[in-house]
Amino acid sequence: MKRDDGRKVDEIRPMEIVAGVIKNADGSAMVRMGRTVAVAGVYGPREYLPKHKQRSDRGVLRCVYQMVPFSTDERVRPGPSRRSTEISLVTTHALQPAIFLEEFPKTVIDVFINIIQADAGTRTAGINAASVALADAGIPMRDLVASVASGKIGDHYVLDLAGKEEEATAADMPIACMPRTKKITLLQMDGDLPPQDIKGIIQLSLQGCEKIYALQVEALRKRWKL
Amino acid sequence: MELLKKERDVVIPGDIIVESMEFLPGRNTFRENEAILSKRVGLVSINGRAISVVPLSGAYIPREGDMVIGKVTDIQNNGWVVDVHAPSDAFLPLAGVKEYIDTRKTSLNRYYDVGDIIYAKVNGLQGTSIYLSMQDIKARKFHGGRLVRISPTKVPRLIGKQGSMINIIKDGTGCKINAGQNGLIWLEGEGMEKCIEVIGLIEREAAAEGLTDKISAMLGVTIDKSQESQEVLE
User: Fold this and answer.
1) Of B123, B141, B159, which marks where a domain is finished?
2) Between the CA atoms of B111, B117, B121 and B127, what dihedral angle is there, to the nearest 10 degrees?
3) Among A26, A44, A140, whose Cβ lies nearest the Cβ of B40?
């Protein structure tokens, strides 16, 4: 099968990851997946106010996902929406298992994800950026989190959906995982698929995550190269 | 078992350093099954059987015995609240001050007032609370001068082994420097501009080797090689 941008079905989009792009943040990263660009900034651990929201046994991870107004052809209305609130929540849940939050009781770690340019797979690009930014901020982590969205077009399982493919697919399935332990931290599906297809797509996505993980590792090593 | 990483190798979270029960996980590392892995971006440090990671980035996490620079933000009836750029505010209790203070006769702001900058020792940590003390020979209140903020992970580099780096800067610029472990640096005297420039350079090139020589050449200071041993990051 030939894809719109000439990729093979099991190929990810050309990807670029840069760590440490925001000077004033404790940690930051930019991820470009094809024409989707995400920038993440990490602040903290810092004091969590109001006090009643603090947890005395562990820290709190707070992610904010946002699409900037100029990120798509049609202006995105700024401010929280039903969609961005949900993605903020699933991003938090996707990153949380990788972090040693119990080391920072009563504090909060803030992660701000901005989608500068959107062309499908923004939540996965956001998670990839946030994971590198957290590592860059020196937050203790078990593993990085890599994320990719896949689907099924015709009879083919297709990795890393881009642009119009998102509309052509029978189902769009974003997955986030911790590549070292192969633990899945995010699994969503938009559409209908029989069980065997779901298994196939998960397998394909996990392979895609491995490739993304390698790029994340490279970006972090490059940042701290002597 | 063989070490998968050498001393001073750069590691990132999830990197396996060694797969053996012969070694023990130290600071910024954790054990998973038999392996010892890094929690943070940093440099591997092997001390006998203990493996730890010296962080390259991150916010300040206080440790007992650290000297820190902070700003008094509030006065309570039993002490002072101090902002030390840590995850929570620090507290300097009355008992942590050198002299005896009779609170019935004197107001606490005669000693330290809101807005004062102090150089204090981290005396103890209870949960997330940080307790400070001025009962240290170096502890004092600053008058005048200037504050510079750098990444807390670069402070050991700025000080150098047994203060080698900071002494070069002091000699070279004639500037008085006090470095807090929390990343705040206090400067006073002539050559402050030069000093800030040098500190900026150290922060940018903290990971480079032979930085002490570079700085000493830049400032025209000759180092006494007999005292200077090999450079380390911590």
Assistant:
1) B141
2) 100
3) A140
